[in-house]
Amino acid sequence: MTKLMGVLKKEFYSIYRFLTVDRLYYLERIFKKLDCTMLLETHVGIKPINQMIKSNYLNDVIINSTKKLKIEQCLAGTPDFLKDEHTSIGKDIYEMPHYELIQYLDKGLPLADCSYIIRYQNGTLDFRRKGQISNDKLKLIYRDRLSAMERGREFVLKVYPIDDNTYMVSDGKHSIAMAAYFNYPKLRFDIIPNPFFDTYYRWIFEKVANKKDYKKHHLFFRRIKEFKKK
């Protein structure tokens, strides 16, 4: 049975990698209707069909909120299950494509050259599959956030501790990129439990546990496991 599943997954991936973005969308719709998910190892990393977690789920597990953390205490490169040559795991916000996107939008540079757009299109931005993104939509969101900053609105980030003085941004990368770029101080940090100890993410970590192309993920998981023991 294990061998048969391996053959089926290999055949499925050979089809998956050549699907257009539109057809991938409809494939995900089918998986959602069936209430099922699937992990595929692609040439850039592990990709889900119908990712089984959404950022709004984190609202139900907030442990504490604080305004005392600093941007320099936060990393934005969450586990993305991309291979070492593509992953952003462990990077601070200044090294992330999200920060570069804000630079491009602020300076009016062509977005086609921005690493955020390029990575989004080829599936190396994060855990999500490859896709298309509207430049007009990005510009609109950027202007809305600028307007919110002018009105003094507080940006809310979801973070979890990975050691005594360092937190990982689980949700809010675009907001912290704006705050870092414009030196905007009005941030609230909602602290949540580390989601990478739940069964869903442990399942994914096990998929990369013995694979040499995911050494950066191995190091990260070792780091958070050591911190959990304290």
Structure overview:
The chain has about 230 residues and is α/β, with parallel strands linked by helices. The chain has one domain. Helix content is about 45%, strand content about 15%. A five-stranded mixed beta sheet has the order 3-7-5-6-4. The chain has a two-stranded antiparallel sheet with strand order 1-2. Strand 5 (about 155-165) and strand 6 (about 165-170) form a beta hairpin. Helix 3 (about 95-105) crosses helix 6. The longest helix has 16 residues, at about 135-150. The termini are far apart.
Largest sheet: 5 strands, mixed
Spatial order of strands in the largest sheet: 3-7-5-6-4
Q: Regions with pLDDT < 50 over 5+ consecutive residues?
A: none
Subunit arrangement of the protein: single chain
Overall SS class: alpha/beta
Straight-line distance between termini: 41 Å
Number of strands: 7
Question: How many domains in all?
Answer: 1
Q: For the CA atoms, what is the radius of gyration? A: 18 Å
Please provide the ordered H/E string of secondary-structure elements: HHEEEEHHHEEHEHH
Percent helix among the residues?
40-55%
What is the overall pLDDT average?
89
Strand content: 5-15%
Could you say which overall geometry the principal axes of the C-alpha atoms support?
globular
Count every helix, treating DSSP H or I runs of 4 or more residues as helices: 8
